[in-house]
Amino acid sequence: MSETVIDSSGETQFGEMLRRELVQGDRALAGVPPVLGHMLASTAPSLVSDDILAHIRGMLGDISRQLIRAETAALHSDRNPEEIQDRVDRLSNHLAASSALLSFSFALAVEGQLAEELQERTGIDQVLTPMMQELIASDDESVAELAMATLAAQARFIQAHRRMSLPLGELPAELFHEILRSWSHFAKDVSPASKTQVEGLLRAAYDESGSRTGMLGRLVSTMNSGARAGLVIGHSGLALFATALARLSYQPREMAVLSCHTSQLARLALGLLASGFEPDEIAHTFMQLHPDYSPPRGIKSLNQEQAAELLASTMPGSGS
Fold first, then answer.
1. What is the pTM (predicted TM-score) of this model?
2. For the chain, which residues make up each domain, given as ranges?
3. How far apart are the first and last CA of the chain?
């Protein structure tokens, strides 16, 4: 067997190939928000999955309804249903200009779709996975309670995905505050005092730690060194898998979710390697997630540290 050729930077030639694949994949992801914004505003046939697009439209509309409902209640308004719906539609179009919201909604739509496909193909339950059952049965009462709460949150997520809805409480804190600022800019006809009242009520009801992703993150954190077991997707399920992958490979959870898409397989393989998986374990994960695909050629030539460096070098904000 010939020796692997290493360049002066310490990365294999295959590492450079994977870096190019990562950059190409990240450019594709960076182009998602503007493309989605255009498609949401267009009635022409789209190249994006109609199902994904419908879910994003539904989530934007649901967020808008929640905001307009709060606004109407604060104003003690007697708006009729047609006026309310018109305002919801206009706010939804306004929110569609947010790249951050489109990216987050896209990742949720992809996660819901992948979880459904995984259950149909392998029988892995979207809510009550073997790992979740073990965590619920934990001798540590705090872990068991958190697992039960996370189970309920995951069940709500599956229902929300089917209804194409997105509760405000499930938004990350930074995005939640951005959405409130966007609504405030939209609601030019609402007095400053009423805006303050609406925002105060919504902020008081918001608790990021009680969101599904917040609880998933805390649950994986309680596993400490056992978090690696979360990468066994047939045991953990997609929700815990994506959370463990994000934690162990130092990626945002949204990026970990999107790495499970067939267009991001280089990132998935590198994320698993950076998390401590061996090549045969990576291949097994690919068999469960994408049975028609294999890990990128040459992944065996990299070690855990090199994979982590490649991921970090192409992370948003890295300058790559």
1. 0.83
2. 22-313
3. 34
